[in-house]
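Worked Example 4.2. Consider the chain below.
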Amino acid sequence: MIEVKRKGEERLDVMIRRFNREVQQSGVLTVAKSRRHREKELNRGMKRKIAIRRTEINKLKRGW
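Applying the procedure from the previous section yields the following structure tokens:
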């Protein structure tokens, strides 16, 4: 948990900037965003089918 305390006569905008910097450095937002849209892991067969489909589509695009 990130906590920012006011240092003496520190202005509010400076304190908010310091808080934002600490949040960025800790990586809390990146973890939260990655968990937000987490997809179920595919098994080996499904990955294989997707890869084959992708290569077929690329072949069609290139005109092979």
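The chain has one domain: 12-62. The mean pLDDT is 91. Compare this with Example 4.1 before moving on.
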